[in-house]
Known about the structure:
Blueprint: H1 2-32, H2 42-47, E1 51-58, E2 61-70, H3 73-86, H4 91-107, E3 108-117, E4 120-121, H5 127-130, E5 133-134, E6 148-153, E7 156-158, E8 162-165, H6 170-176, E9 185-192, E10 206-214, E11 219-228
Antiparallel strand pairs: 1-2, 2-3, 3-9, 4-5, 6-7, 6-10, 8-9, 10-11
Amino acid sequence: MKFVNYISVLFFIQFIVFATGCNKVLDWGKENFKQAERYDEGIIKHMHPYIRSEIVYNQLATVADFTAIFLTDAARMLYVDYYINRHTISQEKEYIMRQRLLNENKYYISFYVVCSQSEHLYPDNMSLFTGRYYKNQVMLGEKDSEWQVSLHVKGQQYAPDTVRVVELPIEYQHFLGSHYSQFKSVYLVKFDALNGQDHEILTSGNHTVTLQFASARYKTKLSWKNVVYVN
């Protein structure tokens, strides 16, 4: 019994010594490896409803990868909220920035589209010996692009007004997380906010909005259900 008590006391003393040593190590780590202060991640979580992603497969092979941010009024304002975290601007400039982005939504329905596609092997199997691949066409934005994009709302289909390659702002890169990569192409896709009868395609209230991507062989879509476009 005395032996058991002795062992217990010994373990207790070792624990105290070990804990004291750990505290010293932790203190040393805090002093020499000061951790970066992170921004509030709540803004990023609020952006999730405006992001959709889809990977197109042919059996087990990846054909293409599409991720899009629907630039609604709310999404644009979240971008400004995140932007002013790291830029020093006056309240007047912030107000002008917000109004400019909101006014753009009066004329265009816009999306940032981040995408990539797999390379095509030559059908003669020479790629097994030479590494030859088909040269892919431009993915989006041209008449002969590999994929064509269209907007679908209330049973109606709309062609884009413009599709152009852009540099994705750093704030949106952070919103996308692992969906963004320097090896992917980034496009700003804009649709006219008015239909052929000069009526607004998206008005106040909830909407189901779909982006469809179609190639010569495949098609896929990204959908936002019950999303509010304007504040």
